[in-house]
Design goal:
Number of strands: 10
Low-confidence stretches: none
Structural class: mainly beta
CATH class: Mainly Beta
Number of helices: 2
Distance between the termini: 8 Å
Number of domains: 1
Radius of gyration: 14 Å
Oligomer: single chain
Helix content: under 10%
Mean pLDDT: 92
CATH topology: Metal Binding Protein, Guanine Nucleotide Exchange Factor, Chain A
Strand order of the largest sheet: 6-7-8-9-4-3-10
Shape: globular
Order of helices and strands: EEEHEEEEEEEH
Largest sheet: 7 strands, mixed
């Protein structure tokens, strides 16, 4: 496992996440992921640490209200969130990680437009 650092565009929100150096991310085509360019790395809550910015984040929910989309209220970047598919985990946006600790990155597509039909295809938590 490697400790990766990341955060939002303006630098107010900063976090660490423990994950492999060779990352296999999920690229979802649902409405919100497509619009935000989110590239998922889903980890357990114990593998994620918010270092800074707890007072600078806002939460957005829609549809079932299970997913908690967390973004910086200053720059608007969603660098991580609690996904509907893994409400006991955190999905980190690979695009918000500092590149120095990523040895390799591949992505697998996920048809989130048909979420209910395809949810069983997602792995439980990345390891």
């Amino acid at each position: 496992m490697t400790t990766h650092r990341g955060g939002c565009h303006c630098g107010r929100v900063k976090f660490e996440v423990d994950a492999p150096a060779d990352i296999v991310a999920t690229k979802c085509n649902c409405s919100i992921c497509s619009m935000t360019g989110f590239l998922h790395l889903i980890v357990g809550q114990n593998d994620f640490r918010l270092l800074q910015g707890a007072d600078d984040i806002e939460t957005y929910t829609f549809n079932t209200g299970v997913a908690r989309h967390i973004f910086c209220r200053y720059c608007g970047i969603k660098s991580y969130y609690v996904p509907r598919s893994h409400p006991d985990g955190i999905s980190v946006n690979i695009n918000c990680l500092q590149p120095g600790t990523i040895a390799s990155l591949t992505s697998e597509p996920f048809d989130g437009r048909n979420w209910e039909k395809n949810i069983s295809q997602l792995s439980r938590i990345s390891d």
